[in-house]
Description:
Elements: H1 5-21, E1 26-31, H2 38-46, H3 55-58, H4 66-69, E2 75-82, H5 92-101, E3 107-108, H6 117-136, E4 141-144, H7 152-159, E5 163-164, E6 170-171, E7 179-186, H8 205-209, E8 215-217, E9 220-221, H9 227-233, H10 243-246, E10 249-251, H11 255-258, H12 285-289, H13 293-299, H14 309-323, H15 325-328, H16 332-340, H17 347-359
Parallel strand pairs: 3-10
Antiparallel strand pairs: 1-2, 2-7, 4-7, 5-6, 8-9
Helix pairs in contact: 1-6, 14-17
Amino acid sequence: xxxxxxxxxxxxxxxxxxxxxxxxxxxxxxxxxxxxxxxxxxxxxxxxxxxxxxxxxxxxxxxxxxxxxxxxxxxxxxxxxxxxxxxxxxxxxxxxxxxxxxxxxxxxxxxxxxxxxxxxxxxxxxxxxxxxxxxxxxxxxxxxxxxxxxxxxxxxxxxxxxxxxxxxxxxxxxxxxxxxxxxxxxxxxxxxxxxxxxxxxxxxxxxxxxxxxxxxxxxxxxxxxxxxxxxxxxxxxxxxxxxxxxxxxxxxxxxxxxxxxxxxxxxxxxxxxxxxxxxxxxxxxxxxxxxxxxxxxxxxxxxxxxxxxxxxxxxxxxxxxxxxxxxxxxxxxxxxxxxxxxxxxxxxxxxxxxxxxxxxxxx
Length: 363
């Protein structure tokens, strides 16, 4: 494809408008030079902060070299899509805090209460790519959303979608951080957008609030201590010393986002895919623990949660129910639920159930 600078500028403007029509909150464009991230990435991997996420190390520096991942790439069309459900009222942060304090509540990260974002984002990014092809003809591209070795936050920051907060997530001045990221790597030399000025200042609320102190300092995350890692990525037993720190969080953790002052500007989702399903924003641990594997697979069809499988689902809930003993030791329904899984076929489930029962005084 050959095009003048004027044509490319008009195309970039059109892409941003088409993105909004597809439900993206914002679309911007960056070059793909991430050489400045290679040394920090290697240091993070060398420290072992990625834990069992071998895929983080498996691609080497390709993660910081998009043009090696997709030969011919010169630009990243970066997009963000809000996911905070409209049903959460204006006092949603107080609501989430109350759930955290309720020993019987199963706290599930907001992003996972609706449809699997991977599918939603990739589908709409693909539609955007096809719209571009309809305008300019065939071009080289590949669509991503947390689905390949791509440094999405860095590309989004370069594109001006926000800045990397001290918790390592992207923060947008008008939209907080409750949004998903995705990108289209393209071989079209579109004009790039300017990055945003970081605006965290002296605030360290996200570092202070982390229950497991996984945020070691600004922009330094030890994933092995992160509740999202422990409840989602970790395949085996959760380290005993970490279990009490998890509280009643059974899938992911939003603490560092919820406390962030910029999330007073968090915007609601405009696509119905992220509406809450199966009352996951108000469910109790006992009810979720009762799901059979068939029920889990059926109810979690199309959800990001399904990928952890029923065994880890029960493991996480057992930890949450054990931690409930700190406020409601021996609560009959919780003890009865745990006893019902005492002889579960999975050694991992049995171990976590036994640990939880011991906290409730049941040997």
